[in-house]
Structure formats: C-alpha cells, structure tokens
C-alpha cells in the first residue's frame, strides 16, 4: 500500500488533481503541492479548503520547487515521505521528475509525453526518444511509472484497451476524437498551457496508417463527425501522444487523432505561425535582448485557469473503433461528455482541466491499493482498463458506449470489471 502524494504543477490541471486527491485523502494520505510559483500552490490549497474537498483531516502543504533540479526534487520527495508523484507540470519536466522518482523509489505518473524545449514534433514513436529509454532503470529499481495518464493520452488509451479486451476479436482502426463544444467568451485563448498547445500543431502531423507512420501538414485533413450531445463538429487530423504508444502496443493498422477547431483558432494560429511568432527557437531583438517568440505569445494570452468562471458548454472525447467480432464487422464509440460549468462548480476549473486532472488521481488510487503498482514503466493501454474506467465513473468522469445496441452508460462490476479485468491485471503484472 503506497501513501502520500506529491503533486508537481499548480496550473488548472494541478488544481483538479489537488481537489481529487483531497476527496480521497483517506486512501492517499498526505498531499503536497509544489511549483516554481509558491503563491499558485497556496491558492489551490485555499480553494480546496473553501470547497471542503478534504475527505478527512490531513496534511495539505505547499512547496516552492524548480522541478528541473533533480536533487531538490528528490529531497522534497524524501522530506514529504511521498510514495506517489503526480507530474502535471510542463512536459519539459518529465525526465527530471522521473529521475528523482527512480532515485527515491516513488511511483511516477504523468499526463503528457516529454518535450525538449528546442524540438517539436519529434521522430515517432516519440516515447522511444525519452521515456522508453528509462524502462530498464524503472524495472531494476522496481519503480512504477505510468505514462500519459490524463484523458488524451490516458483514458482514450484505456478505451482502446477495453475495446481490445471485450468488444473485438480484431481491431482494424481507431479514430480518437476530441471536441470542445464550450465557449469561454474570450476573443482568443488556449484551454491549457499556450506554449504546449501551439507546439503540438506547428510541425508535422504524424498518424499511424496501414501499419506505418504517415506525415501530413496541420489542418490538411478535415473530417466532420456527428457526435453525441455536442452534434456535428468539424475536426482536423493532428499528431498526438497516444498514437506514439498505441501504434506500438496494440497491433492496429490505422490509428488517427482528430481535434475540433473553430475558424477563429485556425485564423489566429495561421497568422501567428506565418509571422514566426510560434517559433520555439530564440531570436535577438534590435535592442539586443534574446527572446523566444512562442514564450512571448504565451505571456500575452490569458492564463488558461482564468477561463473557468465563464466557461459554458460541454466536451466530447472518445474512441471510434472498427473491426470484427464473432466474424462480423463492428463499430463502437466509447466516450465521455463533460460539462464546463459543472467542473467549475466542483473544483473551480473548466472541463478541459477536469478531464485531464481526474485520471491521474484515479491512477494514483490504483497504484496505492496495488492494482496498477506493477514495478515497471507502462503506458495506460498496457494496464487493466476496467478498474481504471470503473473508478473514473465514480469520480466524475463516467463513460458511455454507442454501438448496434444503442447509446448507454458503460458500467463495470464493483471490483472494476470482473473476469476480463482479473485477466488484464495478471497480464499487466507479468509485463
């Protein structure tokens, strides 16, 4: 049984993680929040107390930390006796925090693939450039490291694994669809860190088609989907974290990621890109100052966490899976719908942060009680999906399934999924 959680990162997702850890502190124990900006940690703690999120009396403590400093991060892990570290800071921090966890024996959870500040859209499979090179270290140290445990990546990986385990004999294609049908009332803003947001779309779009990597340009491939609750929405094929692991782990020939964009986003993005303002490379001004254009754009845009109070509407994110079951063609859509206003009412964040922040806490709970404490590095699809999805349903992220039998809630046994889950648990433990 692992206890005591260190949350690294104090943005909108960090706020959700803190509230959800507090709601389960009877299991998770002490909660510590660390960020370079101490005041942000204090504000989150105040929010947790205001909303009375703590389930039982317990520690909830703020810390100042530069998580790029491995020694300081390891010192904080030891000082707080944290056995689980949830990394919801910048994707630039992954390798530093993972190293600190390997040194201290703490379990590691993140929600996004590692990024080098000077590189974008790296050679696929991207996980092979950083995280997967540390597999042997994790196994040797007996450290559980769960990669990409947000919603996408994360929950959508679990949806793919569930489809494999329970709904198909053969999967031919997986289309991951992410649509935010909400409105924050601003002329232009990004729903999470602008720097990370723009970096996803300024390079090549990598998809996995016919069993090989395929490259396109951003906004080159468009598709309209008729989705539950949010209706018909326009999406564009983009590159995304989960393709880099699912393509290697599931043996499915076609895996694509589709994200919804409005015309205003596309227009502003195109202008910024054409002006060179989305470049991650440093430049020097006429006054001799060195700046990174992308960081300047980030500085002038609204803080994503500031969007939450006025956000309305819903998100719809899921996997459209096609294949064969019992010799017959089959199509299944497994998805979640979340409401911005409801998320704000519960934890003070919008639904984008909510969908990203609840899953790593579910992962922490599964590690704490042993189901996902596998003592090695794993992407979410390599772990039993049924306990994870069942727990998420009880934590505020219920899933639904739409197939030939209709559209209905996706339910699991009280233990997380019955026989299929137990088989998956044994498989995950065996590696």
Mind explaining what this structure looks like?
It contains 15 helices and 19 strands. It is of the alpha/beta class and 431 residues long. The strands form 4 sheets. It has an 8-stranded mixed beta sheet. Strand 2 (31-35), helix 3 (38-50) and strand 3 form a beta-alpha-beta unit. Helix 13 (351-368) packs across helix 14. It is globular and about 55 Å long. The relative contact order is 0.15. Mean pLDDT is 94; it is low at 417-427.
How do you describe this structure in short?
The protein is α/β, with parallel strands linked by helices and 431 residues long. It has 15 helices and 19 strands. The protein has helices at 12-23, 25-28, 38-50, 70-79, 94-104, 135-141, 155-167, 194-199, 241-249, 263-274, 293-300, 340-347, 351-368, 385-395, 418-430; strands at residues 5-8, 31-35, 60-64, 84-87, 107-110, 145-147, 170-180, 205-209, 212-216, 222-227, 231-238, 254-260, 283-284, 290-291, 314-325, 328-339, 377-379, 400-403, 406-409.
């Amino acid at each position: 049984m692992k206890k005591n959680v260190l949350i690294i990162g104090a943005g909108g997702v960090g706020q959700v993680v803190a509230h959800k850890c507090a709601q389960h502190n009877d299991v998770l124990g002490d909660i510590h929040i660390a960020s370079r900006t101490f005041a942000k940690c204090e504000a989150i703690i105040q929010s947790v107390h205001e909303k009375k999120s703590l389930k039982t009396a317990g520690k909830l403590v703020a810390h100042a930390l530069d998580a790029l400093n491995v020694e300081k991060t390891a010192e904080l892990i030891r000082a707080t006796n944290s056995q689980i570290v949830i990394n919801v800071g910048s994707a630039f921090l992954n390798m530093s925090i993972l190293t600190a966890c390997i040194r201290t024996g703490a379990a590691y959870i993140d929600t996004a693939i590692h990024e080098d500040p000077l590189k974008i859209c790296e050679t696929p499979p991207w996980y092979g450039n950083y995280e997967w090179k540390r597999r042997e270290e994790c196994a040797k140290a007996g450290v559980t490291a769960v990669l990409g445990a947000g919603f996408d990546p994360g929950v959508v990986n679990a949806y793919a694994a569930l489809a494999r385990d329970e709904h198909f004999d053969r999967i031919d294609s997986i289309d991951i669809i992410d649509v935010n049908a909400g409105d924050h009332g601003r002329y232009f803003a990004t729903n999470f860190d602008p720097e990370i947001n723009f970096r996803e779309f300024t390079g090549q779009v990598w998809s996995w088609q016919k069993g090989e990597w395929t490259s396109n340009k951003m906004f080159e491939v468009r598709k309209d989907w008729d989705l539950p609750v949010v209706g018909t929405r326009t999406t564009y094929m983009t590159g995304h974290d989960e393709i880099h692991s699912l393509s290697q782990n599931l043996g499915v020939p076609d895996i694509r990621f589709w994200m919804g964009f409005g015309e205003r986003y596309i227009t502003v993005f195109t202008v910024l890109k054409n002006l060179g303002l989305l470049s991650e490379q440093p430049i020097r001004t006429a006054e001799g100052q060195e700046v990174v254009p992308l960081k300047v754009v980030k500085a002038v845009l609204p803080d994503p966490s500031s969007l939450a109070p006025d956000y309305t509407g819903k998100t719809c994110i899921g996997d459209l899976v096609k294949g064969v079951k019992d010799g017959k063609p089959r199509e299944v859509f497994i998805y979640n719908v979340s409401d911005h206003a409801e998320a704000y009412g519960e934890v003070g964040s919008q639904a984008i942060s909510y969908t990203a922040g609840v899953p790593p806490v579910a992962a922490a709970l599964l590690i704490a009680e042993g189901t996902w404490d596998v003592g090695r590095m794993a992407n979410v699809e390599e772990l039993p999906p049924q306990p994870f999805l069942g727990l998420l349903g009880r934590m505020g992220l219920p899933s639904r399934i739409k197939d030939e039998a209709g559209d209905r809630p996706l339910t699991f046994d009280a233990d997380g999924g019955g026989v299929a889950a137990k088989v998956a648990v044994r498989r995950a433990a065996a590696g």
